Structures are given as C-alpha cells and as structure tokens.
C-alpha cells in the first residue's frame, strides 16, 4: 500500500505539473485544500490535498523527492504494524481531520481562502505514529543526526513550531491538528473500549498509590516469638526483619 500510495502521489503531481494546472485555477485548484472551497461543496479536498504536490520550481522538485522518500521509508514500517487498509485509512483520515479542524479557525482569523497542500501534513502524522511504535529505533535526521524514535515526537513538534514562526501559525494548523490526532490514535483514544480500559487502569493505579501511603515499616519480631503463625518475610541473620504493616 505504501508503494502504491507513493506512486499515486508522484503520478498525480507530475500530471498536474505537465498540464500546467497550477492553483488558484485549473485542476490543482480543485485538489488542494481551501476552507472556503470545502464549505462551498468541494468536500473531497480534505482528502485530495494529501495526494498532490505543486511543482512550480526546481527547489520544489527536490523537496518533493525527499517527501516521497520519507513517505516510503517510514510508511512501509508503519504499514507493517497497522496493515495495508488501516495504514491507508490513517493516512487519509489524519489528513482529513487536520483539514476539518482548521476550517473554524480559518474563518475566525480570516484566512478562509488560503490554499494548503497536505503531503507534509500526512507525513507529520506518520512521524508521530512511527515514533510511538518504534521508540527505540535509531533515525538519522538529515542523514546525519542520530535520534531515537521516541524523540521524533518532540523533534516533529519542534520543527512545526519553527515553521509556524517563519511562515505564520495559520499555515501550520492542518499539520498541528493531524499530529495531535496521530497522538490520540497511537494512545488508543479512537478506540472507545481501549480508551475505557486505559482509564480504568489509571484509576486503579491511582487508588493503589493512595492506599500504599498508609503503609509503614515496623521492627520485626525476635527469634522464638510464637505469638503468631502468619508467614513472615525472610529475616536477617540476627533474627529480626522488617514488616510491612
């Protein structure tokens, strides 16, 4: 599925570039995500914006190739955990949730007509899920800097914050919401039964910690003390030992 998805994104992006359909008009204008266009009826944009990348310049082509490599690299490992169908559902679902959550903020702060492309939105969500399932696997950022998988979550949100400072927070909202959705998915919050079991386990652990605060260690009994037949913990050589009361 990862291979097919990579091929589809590459083919669709190249097709749009060859036909010259760059936004705001043409085919690309109907595939990328605009909050105003979605509310006008082009609902498919919340999904298709993660399947196409505009290629107006040579620099964009290099970034595009790096994105495809990144998708194939971590996507294949995430797919091995989720399976093909759940992987595709996660890729498209996280992108769609990021877009839908952006719409009210777009109208609230006045950028409803801003265009968004979503390949890096989906890659951010995949990075969070990869970091959750491969927490101890080493990853080389920029092919040089080694980090563990568990650190990728902080790195991903840190990079997102830097882009928000440079390009403005409005541009980063879909990526931010998709990454938060990936965190929720990784922790089972999209599975009501698993979320309920996690909540119950947290409640039980909290109750046990509260009860253990009443325990204290008292001096053990001496040898020859037969006042009780309760099993005693292993004593030290002098015949005494701690008791948990």
From TrEMBL:
Residues 222-245 are annotated as: Disordered. GO terms for cellular component: membrane. It comes from the Bacteria. The chain crosses the membrane at residues 48-75, 87-110, 116-135, 147-166, 172-190. Its main location: membrane. It is a multi-pass membrane protein. This is Integral membrane protein.
């Amino acid at each position: 599925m990862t291979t097919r998805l990579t091929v589809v994104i590459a083919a669709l992006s190249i097709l749009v570039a060859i036909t010259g359909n760059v936004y705001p008009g043409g085919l690309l204008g109907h595939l990328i995500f605009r909050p105003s266009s979605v509310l006008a009826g082009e609902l498919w944009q919340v999904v298709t914006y993660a399947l196409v990348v505009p290629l107006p310049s040579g620099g964009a082509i290099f970034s595009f190739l790096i994105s495809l490599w990144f998708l194939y690299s971590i996507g294949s490992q995430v797919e091995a955990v989720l399976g093909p169908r759940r992987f595709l559902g996660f890729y498209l679902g996280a992108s769609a949730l990021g877009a839908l959550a952006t719409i009210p903020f777009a109208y609230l702060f006045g950028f409803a007509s801003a265009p968004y492309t979503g390949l890096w939105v989906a890659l951010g969500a995949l990075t969070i899920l990869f970091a959750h399932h491969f927490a101890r696997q080493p990853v080389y950022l920029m092919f040089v800097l080694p980090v563990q998988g568990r650190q990728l979550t902080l790195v991903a949100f840190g990079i997102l914050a830097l882009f928000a400072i440079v390009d403005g927070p409005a541009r980063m909202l879909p990526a931010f919401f998709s990454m938060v959705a990936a965190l929720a998915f990784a922790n089972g919050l999209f599975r009501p039964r698993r979320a309920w079991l996690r909540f119950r386990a947290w409640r039980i652990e909290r109750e046990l910690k509260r009860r253990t605060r009443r325990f204290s260690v008292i001096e053990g009994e001496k040898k020859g003390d037969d006042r009780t037949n309760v099993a005693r913990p292993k004593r030290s050589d002098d015949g005494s030992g701690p008791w948990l009361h």
